[in-house]
Design goal:
Blueprint: E1 3-10, H1 17-30, E2 33-39, H2 44-51, E3 56-61, H3 66-78, E4 85-90, H4 92-101, H5 103-111, E5 119-124, H6 126-129, H7 134-151, E6 162-166, H8 167-176, H9 182-192, E7 197-202, H10 209-212, H11 223-250
């Protein structure tokens, strides 16, 4: 039976300690191991709480972008080789919301992760995607539409901050990853390396304002950073398509 390992990152996450205690107990019940990076600018009470969780492997890091934090967490998880593990990466705020608001859906998904997968993009279904602010939805639809064409997967949601993979795929990703937007980069690495990619939409990746909110999410100014991210995501797809084409010609 495959072991389930959670890889996650957190940066300035806002949650009460009773809720955090509950979330950590849920995580412990569903994952054999947990690897987490915590920004050194995070609330001290949350950082200290995580430090005292003996079941968590954690690393406190300076804030240098989501991509670097995810690579640090991935490196931490892959330090000990475990060919029998399935690794689930999911941003910690999304894990917390899933356990607090959609626990059964999340646990059903974990139990039913295909045991022989290579790389699985875990995206939001229509209902869960609709819980996000319009500034997120309207811009992420652009990135997702482009990615759907690149990977030839209908209705793809690649910007959810969640994916699952085996140990060998994790090693390939860690060797090559360098970009800021790993949501698009990690699947592209798999495409370049001829690693099979699957997609599953789920109901537990939802937006709860008090946990997930960012600056100007609900007014027009929120489009400025979100459009920048969408453009960066599409450009990363374009660059890596060129690499793939070049490698194909050489072969």
């Amino acid at each position: 039976m495959k072991r389930h390992v959670l890889i996650s990152t957190t940066h300035n996450f806002k949650i009460s300690l009773p809720n955090l205690e509950y979330v950590c107990e849920c995580i412990k019940a569903n994952f054999e191991k947990v690897y987490l990076t915590v920004s050194n600018t995070s609330d001290a009470s949350i950082t200290n709480f995580i430090k005292n969780k003996t079941s968590f492997n954690y690393k406190v890091i300076p804030p240098s972008g989501a991509g670097d934090a995810r690579r640090e967490a991935l490196s931490l998880a892959l330090f000990e080789e475990d060919a029998e593990a399935i690794y689930l990466y999911c941003d910690f705020d999304k894990v917390a919301v899933a356990m607090l608001e959609r626990r059964k859906d999340f646990e059903d998904f974990i139990r039913n992760i295909p045991p022989h997968l290579h790389f699985l993009i875990v995206g939001r279904n229509r209902e869960s995607f609709a819980t996000f602010p319009y500034t997120w939805q309207n811009t992420e639809k652009i990135s997702n539409s482009a990615a759907s064409i690149v990977f030839n997967i209908a209705d793809l949601d690649i910007t959810s901050g969640c994916c699952a993979f085996d140990y060998r795929t994790g090693k390939k990703i860690l060797q090559r990853s360098k970009q800021r937007l790993t949501d698009t980069e990690w699947p592209i690495i798999c495409k370049i390396c001829d690693i099979p990619i699957e997609f599953k939409s789920v109901p537990f990746l939802i937006y709860i304002q008090k946990f997930n909110h960012g600056r100007n999410d609900d007014n027009w100014k929120g489009y400025i950073p979100r459009l920048t991210l969408a453009l960066e995501a599409i450009k990363s797809l374009e660059n890596d398509i060129d690499v793939t084409s070049s490698q194909t010609r050489k072969n």
